[in-house]
Design goal:
The chain is an alpha+beta fold. It has eight helices and four strands. Among the domains are: 99 residues, no CATH class; 94 residues, 2-Layer Sandwich (hypothetical protein PF0899 fold). A hairpin with a 2-residue loop joins strand 3 and strand 4.
């Protein structure tokens, strides 16, 4: 039977694969204290074992039979190389101890304890994350409340300032409007007063002219009083000729003696003359110094003129 050995590299790879399946552990499965750690120099150890294995292979090659052309079924048969146990022996120091960690030397990992620790760590991290999130949320809410309060206060202050300024401006405008309105009313009042005085005088003169023209004209004693008052004012005259209307002549002539005794008092001579050119209430007195008009109508006209002049005088 034809048998063929694998190369040393293939045999080593095959053996390492088997060792990986039996003796390989993940880092998370093993807990090692810092003082128990050791460094394994596998490269030097493997090189030494390969050299020993090569010497054994050469010795076995001399003892192997050659190819048989008439072998079973006429095909060469593959001969396996060194078994896994032999490869394992390469990595052993002959006494079962060395730098290679075997599966039998390690305790079995406690997966339930590892899972519990992982869950506890996850819960701790989650709790810390939740606490941080709550702190961040609370701080953000406090900051937002502060910003909102500041914004409200600033808005109220700004609104108060704007409202105060607007109200002050409106009050100032109203003050100016009221002052202008007052000035206009005073001007209108002065104008009305100026226009009212002449109209008032006209009305008064119309009233007493009507009254005097009706009542006073009929009251002949008033005419006698006017004649007496005028005679008393004339001083440098010896002759007084009084002209009256035909209607007033009888009554005035009856009062001649009274006028002589009172107004003239012996200073001159009084003569009463009926003048057809005069109307009722009219009277002209001729003296050495001139002619005096003391009729009722003339006196009313002079009074009206004086009132009108007074109405136009400014205080």
């Amino acid at each position: 039977m034809l048998r063929k050995l694998l190369s040393p590299e293939a045999e080593v790879t095959r053996s390492l694969f088997r060792m990986k399946q039996r003796n390989l552990y993940k880092a998370g499965w093993v807990r090692v204290d810092g003082e128990d750690k050791c460094v394994i120099d596998s490269n030097t150890l493997v090189a030494e074992r390969i050299e020993e294995w090569e010497n054994i292979r050469r010795a076995n090659a001399v003892a192997l039979p050659s190819f048989d052309e008439d072998g079973e079924e006429g095909e060469p048969e593959f001969v396996s190389g060194i078994e896994g146990e032999e490869i394992d022996a390469l990595f052993s120091d002959g006494e079962g101890s060395g730098n290679v960690i075997k599966a039998g030397d390690m305790p079995a990992p406690d997966f339930s304890e590892m899972q519990a620790e992982a869950e506890a760590e996850a819960e701790r991290i989650l709790a810390e994350a939740k606490a941080q999130a709550l702190d961040i949320t609370a701080q953000a809410k406090r900051d937002a409340d502060i910003e909102r309060a500041n914004a409200v206060e600033e808005g109220m202050k700004q609104g108060y300032d704007e409202g105060y300024a607007r109200g002050f401006a409106e009050a100032d405008d109203m003050k100016r409007e009221l002052a202008e309105r007052k000035r206009q009313l005073e001007a209108e009042y002065d104008e009305m007063l100026e226009n009212l005085e002449p109209r008032f005088i006209e009305t008064i003169t119309d009233v007493y002219s009507h009254i005097f023209g009706v009542d006073l004209m009929d009251n002949r004693d008033i005419l006698v009083h006017l004649i007496d008052s005028t005679l008393r004012k004339v001083e440098s005259s010896k002759t007084f000729i009084v002209h009256v209307s035909a209607d007033d002549y009888p009554h005035v002539n009856m009062q001649k003696q009274t006028l002589v005794e009172g107004a003239v008092a012996g200073r001159g001579i009084i003569e009463i003359i009926e003048d057809i050119a005069l109307s009722k209430g009219d009277c002209l007195i001729e003296t050495d110094g001139g002619i005096f008009d003391c009729g009722v109508g003339t006196q009313l006209e002079e009074l009206t003129k004086k009132l009108r002049v007074l109405s136009y005088e400014k205080v």
